[in-house]
Every structure is written in structure tokens, then in C-alpha cells.
Amino acid sequence: MSGRVTFVDHGVTVEARPGETILAAVCRTGYFYRYGCRRGGCGVCKALVVDGTVTHAAVVADSVLTPEEAARGLCLTCRAVPNGDIQLRLVDGDELRCVSPLLAGALNRALTKEIL
Amino acid sequence: MSVMRMGYVHIRVTDVEAAKKHYTRTMGMQVVAEGDGTAYLKCWDEYDHHSVVLEEGGVGLVKLGYKVETPEDLATYEKRAQKFGASVSRMGKGENLAVGDGVRIMLPSEHVLELYNDIEYLGTETGTLNPDPWPRDGVGVSAPRLDHALLTADDVETTERFFQEVLGFQAVERAITDPADPMLIGTWLSCTNTPHDIAYVKGPNGKLHHFAYAMEDWNSILRAGDIFSMDDVPVDVGPTRHGITRGGTIYFFDPSGNRNEVFCGGYIVYPDFPTITWTADQLGKGIFYIQRELNERFTSVVT
């Protein structure tokens, strides 16, 4: 299932392809936020799902994402695949930045138009 | 009497099959034994039974093994570690597959270090009689051997002192905050004639920053980088050169997020080697000589 990931504090929406993780979709579309190993080992890319659900596409260690954190809606965005449209909030003061306007413009123009 | 080298790195992985694929298909190691969610692997130029143990469940370091020169060394290091105040116990033959009796030490950095002398001999892939320089059918990166590990410690100074006083390592390079008011924030320690057999930077106790494979030269580092792209391995930093150790490097992550390194070069360390010092304001250059800056990921991601 593909899904739109909307960053509620930034007003940015990116579309994840079927099976694509949140982080992969964000990087593919020219955006960036703080992430580490990209393989679920460090927990640097944690974010809060405020609406909708995600599925972790690989086994996630309890020491990296504790069951309590998961219950609160936190996910590892390098491993989390959205189940349809979701609303996401970055944590620990992290900010979403557009690092490749070229990619962001080309890939998101149609999507943004549609939402607006 | 001496600690000869780092012998094995025992790590946790979230998915042992995915990890095996990385360490065999990408890194070119060979599985020598497996079962119960644990796999034992060695590199082609290593002759002891294994150098990497992958244990399913979690991420990060379980323990490190260092091989000592003689069986008698075990008692000596045991006594010295006790005198230092470390928690020490004996480990029996077979507690680790193919490994004999040994001494298990809880380091001041809260990492488990195992010293052993006896481990099953398997031999290198090229053998010892008129050997070829490398195996004809090497897979992927085809890393020849393990080289060192970098761990994090809250108290780098005490940990360094432990390795010097108890285990006879020498501090080859050190990183300090400010020469006027020095606090030790990193140490690169050698028990061989290479620039580091273990290293520490300031950080949380018990954590792994990376473990590294020794590669032949700069070309093999570049070639490894190509393979990381082919295999979609996340690269942290590199290819570049370290100021510290002068080595060539790429840092990358295994499928559980444990950091690995391919490392080449470095100078020779003799017992009278004069220790090199880096100051914090130049540490960017010390770690990554070409870029001269530390990325946040490199300094914050540990498993």
C-alpha cells in the first residue's frame, strides 16, 4: 500500500511508494531530517505517528524502540512503512529541511497541487 | 608475554539471516558454524576458527575476544586485572564454540573482554604452502581479516590506563580537549605494530562505535565502496583518509545498524613510538583528514 506522509509541523507531504519506508520516501523526494544507520540500529530517526498507522518492515530491537515508545506512537522511520496516509511529527527539536529543491520540486509539485 | 591481537567480535543482530548475507555476500566472510540463531564467521586470510559471531536478538556488542601469546599469560592478566579492581572470572573450554579456557573481564568501560590462547585452527583459504596472494574466488569485498574495534566509554582515561597497565597496550594517538586543561576524549591503543588494536572515544559505556576490517590498499577501499552501492549498504562516511592512524577508510552499516569499517594503511608502531596528540579543535581533521569535519551521525550513532 502506498501512503502520503504529512509532516504536521512543516506542512510538507511526501508520497511513499508501496513498501517504501518513510525515511526512504523523504530522501527520495529531496527532504532531510536527522537519521543515523538507516537499518534500525541507532534510533536517531525516531518520529511520532500522530494519525494513521505504520508497519515496521524488519525486526526492530526493543533496546532501540522500546515497547512503551511504540505504544506512544513512536516509530523508526528507516524501518516504518505507512499503512495508507499518515500524519507525522519529528521529535527532539528535529526539523524537516528541503535539501534538494530540484527533486522536491519535480516530484512533489503534482502532489502539493492536488492537496492545495 | 603479550596480547597478540583482536581475535573475535561477538555482536547482536536483529535478523541473523540478513546479517549472514551481509557478512558473507558483501564482506566475503565464510560461515564456519551456525545454529540456534548464532553464526560464526571468518575472513579468508584468518586461520583461527572464527572472528565474527552473529547472535540474533537486539543490536550492539556482546563481547570482544583478544588472543594472548601463551596459556600462562591468562593467569598473569587475570591477576593484574583483579589488582586493578576489575571484575574478572574464568571461562571454561567450550563456553565459546571452538575456544578454550580463558579469562573474562568486565572493563572499566562496561564492555566484556575475553582473553584466550586456545582456539581451533582452520587455516587460511590460500593455505601455507606456496600460497597465492588472494583467493581466486573471493566474494564481494573479500576482506582479508579483522583489524580493530572502536568502543565508547564514559571514562576514557581509566579505560586507557587499564589497557596500558593490565594488558600492556601502548597509547599510539590520543585526543584531548585543550592542552591547557586536558581531558582525554579519545585514545588509540596498540598491542601489535599497527596504529590501533582497540580504540575508545568518549561516549556511553558498553557501546560499539564500529569494528573494522583490514584491507590491502586504497584501491580495495574504493572497490569495497562500489560493492556497498551494488548491495545497497548504507555508507556513513568515506572513502576518505584519517588524520589519526593515517588510514584509508569507509564507514558503513550492517543490516542491524552496527557500524563496520574497511580500513587500510597506517604506519608501523614500535615499542618506542612517540605518542601523537590531537586537540579537540583539530579533531575534525584528525578523524576525517580531507573533509575536516565530523558529521553528527558519526559522533552520535552507536549500537
What does this structure look like?
The complex is a heterodimer of chains A (116) and B (303). By secondary structure, chain A is of the alpha+beta class. Chain A has one domain (3-115): Beta-grasp domain (Ubiquitin-like (UB roll)), CATH 3.10.20. In chain A, 23% of the residues lie in helices and 29% in strands. Chain A has helices spanning 22-28, 67-71, 101-115, and strands spanning 3-7, 12-16, 31-32, 46-51, 54-56, 74-76, 80-82, 86-90, 97-98. In chain A, the strands form three sheets. A five-stranded mixed sheet of chain A has the order 2-1-8-4-6. In chain A, a hairpin with a 4-residue loop joins β1 (3-7) and β2. The longest helix of chain A is centred in the C-terminal third of the chain and has 15 residues, at 101-115. Chain B has 303 residues and is of the alpha/beta class. Chain B folds into two domains: 3-116, 2,3-Dihydroxybiphenyl 1,2-Dioxygenase, domain 1, CATH 3.10.180.10; 145-300, 2,3-Dihydroxybiphenyl 1,2-Dioxygenase, domain 1. Chain B has six helices and 17 strands. Chain B has helices spanning 16-26, 71-84, 156-165, 218-230, 283-287, 296-300; strands spanning 3-13, 30-35, 38-42, 52-56, 60-68, 87-91, 102-106, 112-116, 145-153, 170-176, 184-190, 198-202, 207-214, 235-241, 248-253, 259-264, 276-279. Chain B has a nine-stranded mixed sheet with strand order 14-15-16-13-9-12-11-10-17. In chain B, β15 (248-253) and β16 form a beta hairpin. Chain B is globular, with a radius of gyration of 18 Å. Chains A and B meet through loops of A and α6 of B.
